[in-house]
Every structure is written in structure tokens, then in C-alpha cells.
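new request in #modeling-help
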Amino acid sequence: MARPKIARKSTSVDMTAMCDVAFLLLSFFILTTKFKPEEAVTVTTPSSVSSKVAPEKDMTLVSITKDGKVFLSLDNAEVKEEMARQMNAGRNQGLTEPQISKFTQASFFGSPLSQLGSFLQIPNDQLKGESLPGITVKDSSNNELVEWMRYVASAHAKTNTRMNLLLKGDNLAKYPQFKNVIDAFKKNEQFKFQMVTNPENVPEGTDLWKKFQRGEKVEE
Amino acid sequence: MAEMDTSSGGHHKKGPGVKKAKKLSTRVDLTPMVDLGFLLITFFIFTTTMSQPTAMKLNLPKDTDKPEEQNKAKESGALTLLLGKNNGVYYYEGQLDPAGANFKSSTMKQVREVIMDKKRRTPEKDLVVVLKPGADATYKDVVDILDEMSINDIKRYALVDISAGEAQLVQVTESRGGVQ
């Protein structure tokens, strides 16, 4: 009696389709990914309902850390060079040519003006926000950010670039420090600035939410 | 899961001596490639920053000492919010009563009710919210309360320094309420 032959099915699956999908997704993620830019200091930002994306070009970013240190960073090298030259001319900062080029390359500034020279000597890989003194912003009479902002503003005017002033504060930073920073902006006639936040949904039932439901535009 | 070579079993059919060239399968095992693909996908998913930071705009008023340039607020339409320690919010309407009778406490979570209630009772052109963060308020509190302004669609609001009397009142209320 012949045994009924059971067809032996191969256990291997065709992987081609799966491979296609995997690499399609892979290329999507490779193309859309954007690595977090290296930041001077770790700042956890609060969230807001604002839906406007923060500008990424020509920005002047003032960060306030949770222990109240203030750092300044600019991304336009041309502006930074102009700033260094104006500082030399305006307040005898006495930056040498190599220091000016260091200044131009620096990703952020975080030292009292008197120690700027030695701050620029610190190699890049040792620049960590925790160990730096930050810009001296104590009260209205002892506020070096006023000076910094003056040079930032005039350097932007000289190089004819638009200035995007951004403020990035840590959740735990205290209000007086925030106020000192705003005061420094005010003294330089910088009345418009933007605060970096994380996006958040508009709570339901509120007036803004009703406005969105009606499809009205909200002015920023 | 390598491919089984099923063609090897059939060569004796041709009889002894007849050797058939071994037919090699053209199929390649793609499993390791898929593994690698998904490994890289996971890497990119984890490192990617999907949510872009947003920015909240704030326009500051020009500081002025001349009284004629200062904005006048109608007393009936004013709501003053004071920010204290630990997300505490204190508020009063109109002028502060010298004895502190209209001085009330709230929290950051409940302050929306207060603002909405005030907004309902006041004609739109009179409504002004005055924000006074104290020395113990955090940056987050300030951003939250400014955010609250845009959530409740308040057109006129101002960020003002806290006065000594108000700061003291907040402090007294805090110590009475046991806020550390």
C-alpha cells in the first residue's frame, strides 16, 4: 500500500519584499533625520501652544540654565567676526587675530567679558556649560549681557543680516534672571524676541481652541 | 533559514556514470540583509528629532517714565495675577484692597477658570491682565502664564514687576498655606 505522499513545503519565505520595505523605510529615515545640533548647555524648555516653528538661520540664542547661568550663541560667522572687531574698537577688548578667528568659530560664549581671552583658549571638546561661569548677569547695574547685545545688534546692522532673537530658558530658571535678560534686550531696543518652547496641544473648550475650530487664523 | 537544495536528490535517475552539472540556486538568502535594514531603521528612528521646537513671540513695551505715554487700564477690567513659589498663582481684580480682602489664591492648573470667568464678565475692550511674577517664580511659570494668555485669547496683557507690598502678601499667604 502506497503511503500518501505529503508534499513537503519549503519553510523558507521569500525575503525580497520585506527587504524592499525595510530599505524603503531606512532611506526615508536617513533623509528626514536631522541630528540634534550640539548645544552649549542642557536646557529643558517648557511647552506652549504656539505652533510657529523656531527660526534656524541667523539666530542669536540666549540660554538660561537651571542654575541661572546665561550663555549666548550665534550661528553666523560673519556677524561674529564683526562683533569681535567692534569689541576691540569699542571697549579695547584687545583680542588678537588668532583670538578673533577663535571667536568666529566659537559655538557659544559664556564668560565674563574680562575673561573672554582665556575663554577662547579653551579647546572645543572641553567646552561644557556646567564648568563655565556664564555671562555675568547679576542685576541691572551689573549686566554684561547689555554690552553683548549691543555688539550683537550693531554687528547685525553692519553686516546687513536679519536678527532673530531667541530666548531659551530652562524650566527651573528663576524669574529674576529672566527679567535681567529681558532688561538687557530692552536697553538695546530689542523689543521683539521669541521664546523657544516645545509644542503642546491646545486644551479643548478654551477660547483659542474654539477659534481653531472655526478655522480662524490666529495672529502670532 | 537557508534554502534547501532539493535538486541533489534526483541525480541517480539518469543512471550510473552520467553526471549532471549541479544546478546552483540563484536565490540568495535575504534574511541577514533584512536584519541589517531593520537595525539601521531602529537606529534612525531613535536618533531622529521629529518634533521641531516652536517659538513663542513676545513683544515688549518700551519703558517710559512719562505718564501720558503709559497705558491706562480701567480698574473694572483689570485682573492681576501674581506668581509665587511651587506654581502658586495669586490674583485680585481691580485695585488691591489694603487689607488684602480681594486677594485670592489659585494654582497654575486652576488659573484658567479664573481668567475665563473674568473674561466672561468684562467687555473685551476693558479687559487687561497684569502678570507679576515674584522672585520665586520659575521661567516655566512665566511661559505657562503667557501661554495661558494665548490659550484664553487675551488681547491685552502686560508683564510687570511685583511691588514690595504684593510680594509680602504673597509670602505671608504662602507661609500660612505651608508652601515651602
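bot summary: The helical segments of chain A are 16-32, 77-91, 97-105, 116-121, 144-159, 175-187, 207-213.
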